[in-house]
Amino acid sequence: MINKQFLKSLGPGLMWAGAAVGVSHLVQSTRAGANFGFYLVGILIVVNIIKYPFFEFGARYATVTGNNLIDGYNKVGKWAIWLYAIFTFGTMFTIQAAVTTVTAGLLKNILNIDLDPTSISLILLVGTMIVLVIGKFAFLDKIIKIIIITLTLSTIIAVISAFTQGYNPNPNAVVFNWGDATHIAFLIAFIGWMPAPIDVSVWHSYWSVEKQKETNYRPKLKEALLDFNIGYIGTIFLAIGFLSLGALVMHGTGEEFSPKGGVFAGQVINLFTKSIGQWAYPVIAIAALTTMFSTTLTCLDAYSKVLKPTTEYIFPKTQTKNNNWFIWFWLIIVVSGALLLIYKFSGSMKQMVDIATSLSFVTAPVLAFLNYKAVVSKFVDIKYKPKKWLRVYSVVGIGFLSFFSIAYLIWRYLSIVRYIFGMV
């Protein structure tokens, strides 16, 4: 029998999933399967295992302290809050632009809108701002649950149907080559947002606190972690599902995903209809569109909300009794920056996504370290701190993320140097 108290706390974990299941799943996981078959499934699972503690810490900190991770960073030290602010400001425009571009591509394809990507993105972002201002947290909490359930069911049906048709790729199909620079670049982009940017842990902590205020109930740690784990494990299965669809339907066929958002959107929806049948087009189209809209919505909501306390901690004089104008200020800043990037990269959704995901890959170890410092600090009661095994697990994870991030930066630097000398 389901505990009624648990139902009160259910929601932030699914909102976490709503933010995660977007570009990393619809775009990157599907591309991974289409390009390399099932080769990257193992890496997908390992990356999810490595990153797990750093997302869990967001739920843990919010539940046991009643505050979000921004508060945790501030208590660790001013250097931590400054570092978070710099990293957030350096990545938020590309992340928002990437998810918006994919959503705009779906809108253009499904509704057959005869407008350029920038114009559709502008309409989409303005509409999203209005939804956030009118609906606020309660609307976001309810709509995410419906979206995630719809997408999950349609993905399960599509994957099962595709498996019944067998896996028979062309023997000459492309295989992953560790010596191929383009393959390595894709792998980095794939890992960067698998299952999501670590920034989402901060957003999740904020949504958890909002849920506590809405229900006037602070869940037990077990309840909060169960809510989170449902969302986290669900995103892993969905990622494997999208990769499987790409592998079963496209790998070895000679067909490649288009870099243009509208065309790509049609190809993704076609993966489902090829597996299930053309009759399913309306259901799949709605599921894909609402999924990406929810990601656009949650990203914009999160950035405007987390940047408010971040600004207040860095500049204490900005704290006033009624400073909700800060949320509007950051909404406008994020939307403006995202639109500028969308305009610049309007011809290549793929390039936009790869830039955003690669940036997240590089910043992951730093944000993971900040989350670890916050949850093991003296401000968290010792009985709620991670167990010793989880702390060791986290340190090893930070080591792995740091090693691969540094290795990638060196590889990228050497690639640029070789390119420059090759031109001389």
Description:
The structure is a single chain. This protein has 424 residues and is mainly alpha-helical. It has one domain (4-423): Amino acid/polyamine transporter I, CATH 1.20.1740.10. The chain contains 15 helices and no strands. It has helices at residues 4-9, 12-20, 23-36, 41-65, 69-76, 78-111, 117-164, 181-192, 199-215, 221-249, 261-276, 281-314, 325-344, 349-375, 388-423.
How far do the termini sit from each other?
71 Å
What's the overall geometry?
Answer: globular
Give the SSE order as H and E letters.
HHHHHHHHHHHHHHH
Q: Assign the CATH topology.
A: Amino acid/polyamine transporter I
Helical region count? 15
Query: How many individual domains?
Result: 1
Radius of gyration (Å) = 21 Å
Helix content: over 70%
Taking pLDDT < 50 over at least 5 consecutive residues as the criterion, the unreliable ranges are none
The SS-based structural class is mainly alpha
CATH architecture grouping = Up-down Bundle
Specify the biggest β-sheet: none
Strand content: under 5%
Total beta-strand segments: 0
CATH superfamily: Amino acid/polyamine transporter I
Q: Please identify the top-level CATH class.
A: Mainly Alpha
Q: What is the average of the pLDDT values? A: 84
